[in-house]
Design a protein that fits this description.
Elements: E1 9-12, H1 16-27, E2 35-40, E3 43-51, E4 62-69, E5 81-87, E6 90-96, E7 104-110, H2 120-127
Parallel strand pairs: 1-4, 2-7
Antiparallel strand pairs: 2-3, 3-4, 5-6, 5-7
């Protein structure tokens, strides 16, 4: 008898900056959480996986925060890191092939398909709609 794996809960964020800020809060706790990049619909979906930790009904169910960039056509070798910097001039987020001193560096993992706990049809249905 096999148990069905609960599907992840999807939460769309408004911008890549929002997603990177979320990853940055984890980095401040010494948790390195990569952002995943999935080709979809001519662009890319960026997503970050987290877990419900203290909500009893969904304990251990993945929560996927995601952002769709329909115009992103960078090849994987040009998209290896997401860099973020906040200073007196404001917030800057960049996608890069290398790290940069003085910036928050979040690993960017290029994947070819969603993990098994994400329903691909749900992601496609919701990912790039305005």
């Amino acid at each position: 008898m096999s148990e069905e794996i609960p599907k992840a809960k999807l939460v769309r964020v408004s911008s890549l900056n929002d997603l990177v800020r979320l990853a940055g809060t984890l980095a401040s706790r010494m948790i390195v959480m990569p952002i995943y990049r999935l080709p979809m619909g001519g662009g890319h979906v960026y997503f970050l996986q987290m877990m419900y930790k203290d909500y009893y009904k969904y304990y251990g169910v993945p929560v996927i925060y995601y952002y769709c960039d329909p115009g992103d056509d960078r090849p994987p070798e040009k998209a290896r890191y997401v860099l973020a910097k906040t200073d007196e001039s404001g917030e800057r987020v960049e996608i890069s092939s290398r790290s940069r001193t003085g910036w928050l560096v979040v690993p960017l993992i290029n994947v070819e398909e969603p993990p098994p706990f994400i329903d691909p049809s749900e992601l496609e249905e919701n990912a790039c709609k305005g």
